[in-house]
Design goal:
GO terms for molecular function: translation initiation factor activity. Keywords: Initiation factor, Membrane, Protein biosynthesis, Transmembrane, Transmembrane helix. It comes from Lysinibacillus contaminans. This is Translation initiation factor 2. The protein has one helix at about 1-85. By secondary structure, it is an all-alpha fold. The longest helix is centred in the middle third of the chain and has 84 residues, at about 1-85. The protein is rod-shaped, with a radius of gyration of 37 Å.
Amino acid sequence: MDDNKIKTTSDSLDIQIAKLAYIGASISALGGGIQLIAAGLAIDVLENSNKQSSQSQHEQSKQSENMQKQIDNIIKELKQVKRMMR
């Protein structure tokens, strides 16, 4: 009977170990899923940041061009005034 009791205890221990392994694998899979979601969100944020940065650079470039045109116009007008003063 002691052998039977040991076998039952051994079977019970094997079942508990298998359950723990199952729980561990489930937690690991859940963690992997969370990592996957986080990586996807990070990619979205970076892509949106790059788009906004690109748009911002494009807008800054347009503003710089407009400012340069205005400066060029002012210089032309000053040159005209200078000629008139002579």
